[in-house]
Design goal:
Layout: H1 18-31, H2 52-63, H3 69-74, H4 78-94
Helix pairs in contact: 1-2, 1-4
């Protein structure tokens, strides 16, 4: 019987959806750790409140969706967070206007208004 605690890159690191694997790679890159399994807690790996916005930005760049910051606290495992990313991705696909573009520094024009 395989254990969830098989260490870095353990048996559970090879399973999961493509979204879960991408999320695990994102957080391992941000935290400078070896990729872990889909059920490994972000905060147990050394993640903290300063790393969360960096992971959020990487998720936005990778998936094109803006996941609320609280989702990273409520869903600290890639398997859990993948559900939120999937919901946001599906929501964006069905409602293209839901995709949130990040503003540029100094850009004070709200919602694309001209003037």
């Amino acid at each position: 019987m395989a254990s969830d605690a098989e260490g870095p890159g353990g048996a559970d690191a090879a399973i999961g959806s493509a979204t879960e694997r991408r999320l695990a790679l994102i957080r391992s890159r941000i935290l400078a750790v070896q990729p872990q399994g889909q059920d490994t807690d972000f905060f147990a790996l050394g993640g903290d409140s300063l790393a969360v916005p960096r992971v959020r930005d990487a998720v936005l760049a990778s998936f094109g969706v803006d996941v609320p910051l609280n989702s990273f606290y409520e869903c600290p495992q890639p398997r859990q967070l993948a559900t939120r990313v999937g919901i946001r991705t599906t929501d964006t696909i069905h409602r293209p206007w839901a995709r949130r573009e990040r503003g540029r520094p100094g850009d004070s024009t709200p919602f694309g208004a001209s003037g």
